[in-house]
Amino acid sequence: MAKGKKEVTIILDGKSIKCREGENLLKVAQANEVFIPALCYFDHVDPPLGTCRVCTVKVKGKYTAGCQVNAKEGLEVEVMTPELLDHRKAVVEMLFTEGNHICPLCEKSGKCVLQALGYEMGMETPRFPYTFPNRVIDYKPKHIIMENHRCIQCKRCVEDVFTDEGKPVFYFQQRGKETFVAVDYEQEAKLSYEQAHRAMEICPVGTILLKEDTVETPGFRKYDKVPISEKLPEKEAKHQQEISPAEVKKKVVATVSLAGCFGCHMSMLDMDLNLLDLIEVVSFNRSPFTDIKEFTQRCDVGLIEGGCCSDENVEVLRKFRESCDILVSVGACAINGNLPALRNWMPLEQTLREAYLETPTIDTTALIPHHEDLPKILDKVYPCHEVVKIDYFIPGCPPGGDHIYKVVQNLLFGTDFKVPYEEFKYD
Amino acid sequence: MKIKERTYLLDRLWELQNARGYLGDADILQAAAEFGISPVDVEGVTGFYHFFHRQPTGKYTIYLNNSILSWFHGFDRVKAAFEKETGAAIGGTDPTGTFGFFETSCIGLSDREPAALINFHPFTKLTPQKVKRIINGLKDGKSPAELADTVEEKVQYKPEEDKTILLRDFEPGKAIEKLKEYSPDQVVDMIKEAGLSGRGGAFFPTGMKWEFARKAKGTVKYIVCNADEGEPGTFKDRALLNLLPGLLIEGMIVAGYAVGATEGIIYLRAEYTWLLPKLNAALQDYRQKGYLGQSIKGLGKYKFDIRVQLGAGAYICGEETALLESLEGKRGEPRLKNVFPTDKGFLGKPTVINNVETFCAAARIIELGVEKFKGLGTEKSTGTKLLSIAGDCKRPGLYEIEWGIRLGELLDLCGAEDTKYIQMSGPSGELISVEERERVISLEDIRCGGSVMIFNKQRDLFTILQNFSRFFTYESCGLCTPCRAGNPQLLHMIERMMQGKAAPGDVEKALQWSAIVKHNSRCGLGQTAPNSLEQAIQKFPHLFKKKLVRDDNFNREFSLEKATEAYNILTHGKG
Ligand SMILES: Cc1cc2nc3c(=O)[nH]c(=O)nc-3n(C[C@H](O)[C@H](O)[C@H](O)COP(=O)(O)O)c2cc1C
Ligand code: SF4
Ligand code: SF4
Ligand code: SF4
Ligand code: FES
C-alpha cells in the first residue's frame, strides 16, 4: 500500500524506526515487534473503523487510537507506558463484562481475538462488574448463527460483508448499550459458503458462527500455544526455590466447591507428585479432600471453586471469608459464574418454569422444588468476588494443576513463579 | 418507481410516523422500497432515534423531560399526575391507545421546568393540577396546539445598548445590504479579524473554518446550521430561533457567500418542531424579499437557499459529524476525525457547520463592523455570549453577557441565592463550586457554551451526578467501547455510592474509570461524559468520604435477601 512512498523516521517509545510515509502505525509497530492490540482494525478498510478503542496510544501527549495514526517524519508515539497498558487492558475488560463471554463453551475459544487479548494482557478477572445483559441468539439465517451474547459491536461485519451484488448483509440496530447486529436474511441467503465462512472469520469473537462449521481441538487452536503478540513470555521462573519441610511451619489450606463441577478439585489432585511435596508443608482443614465439614482452625488460604447459585453457597463463602486469611477464586465458575451463569440473563421464573413445570415429562404433581432443608436458588449466579472480597484469581476451566500449585506455593511461601502461556487460559 | 435520495429518509419516516402514530412493519417496508434499501437498514435508522417508534404511541404522545432541572422542580409529581390522568404508565400507552407517555432528554425549556411536549407542542411549568387540566382538555376534544403554552423569551440581561451585539434591535436585510460591499475573501478576513469562535461549545475559530471551506476544491459546497441544541440546560439557540430567525438566515447567507455555497440546511432538533412554522415563515419571507433563492438582491448572480431538516431525537446528532450522517439519512454515528467537514462534509462535499449563535454573530459582525465586535470581550474571546441560565435563581432566562464577566457578578445578576454548585456548559462541561466566584467567563477561564445550571445548598450532588450519567448512558451512540460500556459502569458506581454501598477504594476506582472513558472514547460525548464526576471528586472530596462504608471483606452491594426474593415468591407465593 505505502510502497514507493518515501522513507520517514518515527519515534516509537523513544526508539527511532524507519518506515514508509503514510503507513499505518499498527503495521509499523507490528513490523518492529511492538504489540498494539486491535479488534476492529483491518488493513484493507481505509479509513479504519476506529470503534473498539483497544489500540490507544499517545501522540505528542495526546491520547489517540493507534489505528488512526499514519507515519510521518518525526512522529513520536508512546505505546508501552504503564498507563497506556492499563487503559487498553481496561477497555478489553469492559468488553468482557458488557456481553456474556463464557469461553469454555464458545466455538471461537482458542481463536478468539478478544480472548487472546485477555491472555496477552494477563486479565485474571475484569475490574468492572459483570452486567449479564439479556441478548437473543438468532438462528434464522441460512448459513450462520448470530450468537449476540458475544458481539463486541466492532462493526467489521457491517462494513465488510457484501453479496455479489454489493449489498450489505449486516446492520447495526438501536443505539448505545442496546446496539446489536441484525442480519438481512434475504441477502444472507445469497452468500456463498465461502462468503459466509469469511464473515465468520472476520468476526473477531464468536458471534458469527457458520452452521456447518466444526470446532477445533483444544490445544491446537490459533492462540493456544502462541500469544497474539507472538512473543512468548519467559517460560520458567528465574529461581524456583525448593521449600524444605524442616524450615517452614506447616500452613493450613481449606477448599470448597460451590456452584462448580468439582473439575477444579480434580485439577488440584492433578498436581501429581507436587501434591506429595505440598502435603509435607501444608495441611488441609475444611475441604472435600479431608471430608472436614466445619472449620476447626483458622486457615491461611481458602481455595474456592464455583460461584454462588444458592443461599447455602453464600453462607459457605462468607464462612470461608471469615475463616481464611487469603481467598482465591479458582476457575471460571468462581470468577464469572461460567456455565451455571447461563441462566443469568433470564428471569429466575423462566428458568425454573422451563426446568420443572414445562418439560415434556411433567405430570400434575409438578412443582418447583422447595423445602426448608433445600437451599434457596438465587436470582442469578454470582461471581464470588461480588459476594465477598476475593484476593486472587486463577482462571481456567479448569485451571491446570501446575498453575494452582504455583499460585498456592507463592501465596504461602512467597516463592517466585511464572505461569507459562499455555497454562493461562479461560477454557 | 424512482428511487428516492437517502438524504430524505428521515423526512419520509416522519411522514409515515405522523400518519399512523408509529412506524408499523408496512411502513418500514414501504420506506425501504421507496429508497431502494434494505428494511433492516431502515430499522437500523429508526432504532437509533428515540422519537421513532415501532409500537403505537397513542393519539396524544407525551414526552416529559427528565433533565436534572426537571427532577429538581417536580418531575416525580408531574410524572405521577400524567400516569394517573392518562392511565398510561411511563414508557407505554393507556389501554385505549389514546395517550402515550415517555421520558425524554432535555427539551430546551430549562427556564420553565418541569416541561413536556405533547405531539411536539410545548407545555411548561407543569404541576399536577395543570396536568389534570391539560389531559381533561384533550379528553374534551381540544387539540394540543390550542392547549400548549406560548414560549415567551425572557431576556433578563444585556449590556448597555451599544455593547449589545445579538439581542439589539434587528432590521431584516441589514447584514445582506452590507455584504454587497465586500468580496467573499474580505468577508472571511473580517470574521477572522473579529476573532469569532464557534458558539456551539468547541470554540473553533469561525473565520479559519470558513477559509478552509472557501479554499476546498469543488463547486458544490454546503452551509449547515447546527440547531440541535441538545446539551441539557441550554436554550439560547431556541431563543434566537424564536426571537431572531432572520438574523440566523442572514448569518447563513453571509457564510454561504463567503465560502461559495449554494445550499444551506438547518438541522433542527425534533424537540423544536414547534418552532418550525416560524422558521419556515421567515425563510419564505426572505425568499419573497429576494434575499434567498435564484439570485440574491444586491449580490449579482449569487444564489443561495436554505431548507430545514428535522432531527428525530438523539443528543449525539449535535456532534457535527454525527449530524452530517443524520442529514444523509443514516444513523447518527460520529465520523472519524481524520477528515474535516470543510473538506469532505455533507455528501462528501466541503461543508461549513456552525452553531445558530455563531451564524447570528457573523451577521452582526458584517452589520456592525469588525471593530465593534473585537472591542468587546477579552483577548481570546471577543464579542458577547448568550447564556441560558436556569435552576435555583430568581431570574432564569436569556442573558447576553460580554465575555470577561466574573462568575460572582453573573450569580448576582440572576438572583442566585444560597448557591452551592454551578454546572457550566451542561453535563459535559464543568462543575463549579460557589467558592469559585472570582473566576471569569471567557475562553481564558470558564469556556461556557451556553448552559448555566444553578443548584442551591438543598440539592444533592449525587443526584446531579446520577442524572448526568444516566443521560450519557442513554445518549451514547454505542459505536465505541469506552463510552458505550464505560458510561453504564460509571453510572453503576455512582448509584453504588448513593446507596451507601461503596468501599474506600471505590473513589479511586471512579477516578480511574473516568480517565479510561475520557481518554479512549472516539468522540466528544465519551471524552467529556466523566467530567462532572471527576470534578465532583476533586472539589468535594468530603461528600464522597461520607458515602463510604468500612472495607470489611464483604461486598455491600450483595444482599442475600434481595437475591432470594424471586425464589421465595415463586415457591411460597410471598416475598
Ligand atoms: C456530543 C456533542 C454534542 C454536541 N451538540 C451540539 C449542539 O447541540 N449544538 C451545537 O451547535 N454544537 C454541538 N456540538 C459541537 C459541534 O460538534 C460543533 O463543534 C459545532 O456545531 C460547530 O459549530 P461552531 O463552531 O459554530 O460552534 C456538540 C458536540 C458534541 C461532541
Ligand atoms: S472465546 Fe468466545 S466467549 Fe470467550 S471471549 Fe471470545 S467470543 Fe467471548
Ligand atoms: S458480529 Fe462480530 S464482526 Fe459483527 S460487530 Fe459483532 S463482533 Fe464485530
Ligand atoms: S464516544 Fe463513542 S459511543 Fe460515545 S457517542 Fe462518541 S462515538 Fe458514540
Ligand atoms: S483497532 Fe483502533 S479502534 Fe479498533
Provide the spatial order of strands within the biggest beta sheet of chain B: 6-12-11-15-13-14
Average predicted local confidence, pLDDT of chain B: 97
CATH architecture of the largest domain in chain B: 3-Layer(aba) Sandwich
Computed CA radius of gyration of chain B, to the nearest angstrom? 24 Å
Report low-confidence residues of chain A grouped into runs of 5 or more: none
Question: Could you characterize the architecture of this molecule?
Answer:
The complex is a heterodimer of chains A (427) and B (575). Chain A contains 13 helices and 16 strands. Chain A has helices at residues 25-31, 82-98, 113-120, 156-160, 185-190, 193-202, 222-225, 263-269, 273-281, 311-323, 332-336, 348-357, 401-413; strands at residues 7-12, 15-20, 56-59, 62-65, 76-78, 144-146, 170-173, 180-183, 208-210, 251-257, 282-284, 299-305, 308-310, 324-330, 377-382, 392-394. In chain A, a hairpin with a 6-residue loop joins strand 7 (170-173) and strand 8 (180-183). In chain A, helix 8 packs across helix 13 (401-413). The longest helix of chain A has 17 residues, at 82-98. Chain A starts with 6 loop residues before the first strand and ends in a 14-residue tail after the last helix. The model of chain A has no long low-confidence stretch (mean pLDDT 93). Chain B is α/β, with parallel strands linked by helices. In chain B, strands 6-12-11-15-13-14 form a six-stranded mixed β-sheet. In chain B, strands 2-3-1-4-5 form a five-stranded mixed β-sheet. In chain B, strands 9-8-7-10 form a four-stranded parallel β-sheet, sandwiched between helices. In chain B, helix 5 runs parallel beside helix 6 (128-139), helix 9 (184-194) crosses helix 12 (245-259) and helix 19 runs antiparallel to helix 20 (505-520). The radius of gyration of chain B is 24 Å and the shape is globular. Chain B starts with 8 loop residues before the first helix and ends with a helix. At the A-B interface, helix 2, strand 7, helix 10, helix 12 and strand 15 of A face helix 3, helix 18, helix 19, helix 20 and helix 24 of B. One iron/sulfur cluster (SF4) binds at residues 316, 334, 476-480, 483-484, 521-523, 525-526 of chain B. Chain A: Keywords: 4Fe-4S, Iron, Iron-sulfur, Metal-binding, Oxidoreductase. Chain A: Pfam families: Fer2_4, Fer4_Nqo3, NADH-G_4Fe-4S_3, Oxidored_q6. Chain A: It comes from Pontibacter anaerobius. Chain A: Residues 6-83 form the 2Fe-2S ferredoxin-type domain.
